Amino acid sequence: MPHSHDHSHGHDHSHDHGHSELSDLELRVRTLESLMVEKGYADPAALDALIDTYETKVGPRNGAQVVAKAWTDPAFKDWLLQDATAAIASLGFTGRQGEHMVVVENTAKVHNMVVCTLCSCYPWPVLGLPPTWYKAAPYRARAVMQPRAVLAEFGVSLPAETEARVWDSTAEIRYLVLPQQPEEAQGLGETELADWVTRDSMIGVGLPRRPAAEG
Amino acid sequence: MNGAHDLGGMHGFGPINPDPDEPLFHAPWERRCFALTLAAGFTGQWNIDASRFAREQMPPAEYLATGYYEHWLFGLEQLLVERSMATPREIASGQVELEPKAEARILKAGDVTKALAKGGPSERPVEAKPRFHIGDRVRTRNINPATHTRLPRYARGKTGTIHLAHGAHVFPDTNALFAGEAPQHLYNIRFDGTDLWGPDAEAGTCAYIDLWESYLEPA
Question: Exposed, middle or buried, B193 (CB in 10 Å: 0-12/13-18/19+)?
């Protein structure tokens, strides 16, 4: 069984080159959309707006803003760890799949990572839609049992004395990891710091890193 | 239900293989399937627990052989039929044969931003006092319902410690069946790796799992 089955159907059948045959899935979804529109269950303009929201407006840059603010503003950090839903809402990030937020802090002694073993729960308002690997079987199967091995695959080697805590999102509570601020990033401003915060560091499978030089 | 979706602790799936350059959607149909599923949710004919349960009913071999948005598509088609919004023939042909369901609402483009920002909180006020408190030791029940539950198999019959009390939340096991929200106290529970996996646990690991009160008994 190839591990990357999530990719394969898209790549096998629909290369977006115009005249190629439509895949079965493409046809099945088009048929369903036309039925739902015809029956008055879906407004095509609303479908476009839903897609546009998650393609262009809501994504991990939101979460990076939350983390950068927590790194530079101790009062905000306290609030975030006490009442993440309210603290995050104060920056304008609310709603679907982020109704009840909890932020967990990484320290020298504790490393947190987030999974949803039963489906693919993920904090949309701060991270957008989840990457394929987060939704696929290998991560969902292994994160709870072998967090250190999984982290190593993401290039994070955890010291033996650091506890690995895995948060399984089984309810409507959504978890965001507050990564440790790197030593090299001390003293930077909030805007610069946000560029150090990666999506993976807020899921807990990566660490913040120096932004790639522009150009 | 003990379905293929309940993956925690399974072996044999291989490496994670993240793709750092992957697009948000891998094909146009994924984009439309995502939006149709969200829009259909706003018709008010089902709830998030019912939509998870619908996806879980995909046959296990098929579930493991298909991607995320194929699970969504399966669940959406299933719910449209189950809630008398469409027939299988309509879904196959795209041709309307059955009157649209009168109670179904429609999400308009102008309301999308507001609707998403509002979300659907699951916390509810309840009279009942919480049975457990932070620091209490609890054991999860060994249950195997054939219907929806959020107590994963790997965490059944296991002992842990209450770490957070989240207040009372809609109970998915009943809500998925349209049998009522029946809100219950919800807790986050810490389980040591060895209590979940025995001698095969990695050293220095633990899992924190959100579980409803009726999944738990005092340890």
Answer: buried
